[in-house]
Amino acid sequence: MAEVKKAPSVGGWTRFVTARPRLSLLVALVITALAVLAGSGVGDRMGSGGWEDPDAESTYALEVLEREFPASQPNLLLLVDAGPAGVDSPAVAAEARRLAERLDAEPGVGGVGSYWGTRSPALRSEDGRQAVIAARIDGDEKAAGEILERLAPEFRGTHGPVKVSVGGPLAVRHEMQTIIQEDLLRAEMIALPITLVLLVMVFGSAVAAVLPLGIGIVAILGTNAVLRGITELTDVSVFAQNLTTALGLGLAIDYALFVVRRFREELAAGADTRTAVATTLRTAGRTVLFSALTVAVSLAAMLVFPQYFLRSFAYAGIAVVLLAAAAALILLPAALLLLGDRVNALDLRRLFRRRSGAGAGAGSADGAGRAEPETGAGWARTAALVMRRAPLFAVATATGLVLLGLPFLGVRFGTADDRQLPTSAESRVVQDRLRDGFPGNPGGGITVLAEGAATPAQYAGYRERIEGLDGVVRVEGPVTSPAGGRGHAYFTVVPEGETVGGDAQRVVGELRAERAPFDTSVTGAAAVLVDSKDAIGERLPWAAAIVAVVTLVLVFLLTGSLLIPIQAVVLNALSLTAMFGAVVWVFQEGHLSGLLGFTSTGDIETTLPVLMFCVAFGLSMDYGVFLLSRIKEEYDATGDHEHAVRFGLRRTGGLITAAAVILAVVMVAIGTSRVTNTKMLGLGVALAVLMDAMVVRSLLVPSVMKLTGRLTWWAPGPLRRFHDRFGISEGGAPGAAGIPGTPEPEPGPDAAREKERVG
After folding, report:
1. Of 226, 412, 546, 624, which one's alpha carbon is 20 to 30 angstroms from that of 364?
2. Tens of pLDDT along 450-489?
3. What gap in Å lies between CA 132 and CA 430, rounded to an integer?
4. Reduced to 3 states, what is the DSSP secondary structure of residue 6?
């Protein structure tokens, strides 16, 4: 009969969590129900833009143009198809004018213009079969979207001799928002059952498998309620919902996996239920807290950027990480306290063991119904092999990761446009026809806003000078309008090449450098891209510094080592190289575009690499913290460096891999989205997570720790004393074991058995 462990001293947190477990679960159920109500409809309140810098020159100019010249910034386009009759036939012209007048009479719509009113060749297709009615819907994204929802069904379809399709920037954003919400629901329907099956395979017990899934659902619903509140205060991107689902399931499952696994280990070692919960909170619970803080800091770094697209992911990410950790550290221990040994009930793997005639083994139950923890001997042997050939594995793995990241050196940054949508989307079809069948470069013009009193001669002189700039095809304007005694005008500059290509960006710089007898501001797609790149470039060092410094401090508090935090940051960064290389090779260069179902635009949206770095780096640190905490705990107990590395990998290798596979399933489900940016985020982060768990944690970390030896645990005296006072490790009390110059404790029985097992 196994000896029952004596309960350790119970701290205040453990008493709080375990005092009234039924009440805790009941309160959680009520709060979750309220969160469902509070978070309902959150997707409808989110925006689908947010890539521009709100304080940039291009944003200012756009706001003035929208106010002073609504017709210059149409966000609604009606593509009128006249068929063989042609757009100039009397019947078609009469119907088109009637549609334009009807649109102009709609509340909230202004600046209506059309080919039939202006006779502008830019609004007529080259084959004469199609033409455009353009308008400006006023209001913010939400208000304008509601007007579009009302107008689109009325104007879409056949009207006498013409057929009308709805497009324009507003329609693109609205359709993107709708598709993202539909795809997110489908991703959840894909991910949840697969995740449950994988959890059953990991735990064996159906009861244990349901716990992490429940924690994830609580985190997702709670975050939706938080985001609903944030939308009352600021703009939030609809893309953030994808991160909520991915991290809510992924991190909650990660945390629950480690908590439940540690609880089952303690039961198998002979602890009673309350002692097992207390030990689990004191060990794995502290690691979960450190991990959550590390991931939250990585995501919080996006708050330094002005684009609300990036800030939205910080809002969603911080909320879901903290809620997942809170659920894992409050609700899960309460559930485990009530379940006790029943956490191992409904062991579905017994069916397979009986059919195969397998005896007791990994994951089997003893006579008391307690699951024996898996030995992980394969991971220990892997660690031993890697450490025996440490230089070879370290150099080969690092070199391979660097080579996988080389395509990123050729990255080209651009802006998101309609080509993120599937080719069947109506607004995408309209934009494709404008791109391919209309003269000039629709949407590719650069607009120069002129403010201040000026004479016609001054306008003409300025136009003549900018017409002479290299790379300018033509200049249209000025279009003038008085505004309260202060003159406003604008010029439209059409550059050579792509809408946001290198030539267009260079022309933006030259226009801003050109002197004029009035104030000028430059806007347009190319100008927005230039300003966005400048804003990100200016703040990127600050974001990187925040992530690096806080990660270094947290890992030091966990390990007491000066070298391990540096190793963690460097190795985590290496684990992301494959992701960045794949992003360029696949999404920029278009490889596998047919298989994955997207249109390559030849560039990467500027904010996406920043977002993917923060998310993937945080998740990599999540796995790193779990591995390092078990290594540190064993090293403090035995003082045997190599044994501690083997032990840490043996105890966590299988769980980290399982957690990574489950998170990758969720991210791949997100990656099935029909919107390219969401597809890139899901598939890219899935690749990064798998590379980190299966390559970095199993090969690079043990080989590097072998090379650094006992120096791994060194810290200068002042830092060592600081850690002795404030540091926290999974084992509980920090200590100086293994620090050079201090006595080395005798290896315990676990270390001796480990040495016999791995040779």
Report:
1. 624
2. 998 888 899 999 999 999 898 888 888 888 876 544 688 9
3. 10
4. coil
